[in-house]
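Summary for the steering committee. The consortium agreed at its last meeting that each partner would contribute one worked example illustrating the joint modelling workflow. Our contribution is presented below. We chose a case with several input lines so that the handling of multiple components could be demonstrated. No manual editing was applied between input and output; the record is shown as generated.
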Amino acid sequence: DAGVIQSPRHEVTEMGQEVTLRCKPISGHDYLFWYRQTMMRGLELLIYFNNNVPIDDSGMPEDRFSAKMPNASFSTLKIQPSEPRDSAVYFCASSRRGPWTSGGGYNEQFFGPGTRLTVL
Amino acid sequence: KNQVEQSPQSLIILEGKNCTLQCNYTVSPFSNLRWYKQDTGRGPVSLTIMTFSENTKSNGRYTATLDADTKQSSLHITASQLSDSASYICVVSGGENAGNNRKLIWGLGTSLAVNP
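What follows is the complete predicted structure of the assembly.
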């Protein structure tokens, strides 16, 4: 398996522009997570999906952020309009089961390589 | 408030030495605790998972411990290598899979540098 695939790897844009980040999870994984990582705040869970349905988006910072998962093999995170404070590394992760499950190894999250976003 | 605190924030050791990283949490109810290793420029990779009933678990030169009573975990690295230079992140999961009180709380990580 190729693992979680993210694109683009790097994105530089100007303030006010729309940014779309893409993710392909590992086949057979029912959960997909979007994270944002900064030096100051570490990894922050933005939203997660279970079987393509958004379950918890309480981590999405504001209405400028939106995420979709139209099918089991594709998800997008969109920022419109982008602002300099959105600059961060955005990770997508997938898991076979929810990380809250107490048994077995199927709740491990597998992370993609990340997208480094710079908003000027 | 659900929190995960890691210490030290950063650590520098010489190759071949041992070190111990700490993780304290207040997440309740507790489901499991994972340690992740994150190399520079890459996504985190799981090292080990600890459930409520487990006290110690090893993965090669990495040994994790869990004290569920004091809500503390440690990650011990033996005979460090240059490739161990990375950020080590502790994440605590709480709640049950079908419940409404699921939590996934990440620590800020410990940055480890192993020097020759």
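Chain B touches chain A through 27 residues (CB under 8 Å). The longest strand of chain B covers residues 30-38.
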